């Protein structure tokens, strides 16, 4: 077992499988990148107007890669980002013919890639919180490549309580659960337990005060893959402790030991990360309790 309890620090900054079910959130809309250029060949043979400074990575005879990503940060797993290399250029005026975007770093447990062609790549929706680093290399008509340009995209949960889970081996259906404050595991798989059967969307369970702000909701549920799954609350209750645990759902094609990781964010900050080896079909493994009133997480 590997356990990390993290101090309260600001967080800085997978291709998405069709097996995921993402609950819609009408409060957020993907970034509109329909007006962005999408041609594979994009000639920006001169520096942008008004820019008289020499880029720090400019070398004689090489094109210049200029990279951007927006909006930044984004809210996982509903908000879309766009990687933009349309400001790249060749100081000698040679047309640019290739834009190669690569995701060179991402949070552990994420398996995303930057899809598409051309200088602008939209529709990038992070599923896990953390930092995603994109790299752009452009090539001119003479076949000469630029030096790489890198930029970080931050995925920061907006909900005050965000619990995410992923696991090592596919074919093993792991289910994330969270108990309401003050409730014990003897009440699991009732309406005091948020999990796949009753917590799909903001209106699935009524916890705490009237309204949906303190209700839990399951954004992602993955069965055949390696996650992620997450449970979130916009405005958690300040009385009692939430309990987070994982069920190894029976009947999976993979039944051996599996390493499962749970990350817990409070107010957008990662406070807890723990990996436990889960063994046994239909077993229940408790990871942590959350005391929102004091913004603390206690691991098991």
Q: How would you sum up this structure, described in words?
A:
This protein is an all-beta fold and about 300 residues long. It has two domains: about 25-155, Sandwich (Immunoglobulin-like); about 160-300. The protein has no helices and 18 strands. The protein has a seven-stranded antiparallel beta sheet with strand order 1-16-15-9-13-12-2, with no helix packed on it. A hairpin with an 8-residue loop joins β7 (about 130-140) and β8 (about 150-155). It is elongated and about 70 Å long.
Could you provide a short overview of the structure?
This protein is an all-beta fold and 300 residues long. It is built from no helices and 18 strands.
**If you average the pLDDT, what whole number results?**
85
The total domain count is: 2
Which class do the helix and strand fractions yield? mainly beta
| H-E string | EEEEEEEEEEEEEEEEEE
Main beta sheet: strand number and arrangement?
A: 7 strands, antiparallel
Cα shape: elongated
Question: What are its keywords?
Answer:
300 residues, mainly beta, Immunoglobulin-like, 2 domains, 7-stranded antiparallel beta sheet, 5-stranded antiparallel beta sheet, 36% strand, elongated, disordered N terminus
Helix-strand layout with pairing:
Blueprint: E1 2-5, E2 21-22, E3 68-70, E4 81-84, E5 96-105, E6 120-124, E7 130-140, E8 149-155, E9 161-167, E10 174-179, E11 193-194, E12 217-221, E13 229-233, E14 242-248, E15 258-266, E16 269-278, E17 284-291, E18 296-299
Antiparallel strand pairs: 1-16, 2-12, 3-4, 4-6, 5-7, 7-8, 9-13, 9-15, 10-11, 10-14, 12-13, 14-17, 15-16, 17-18
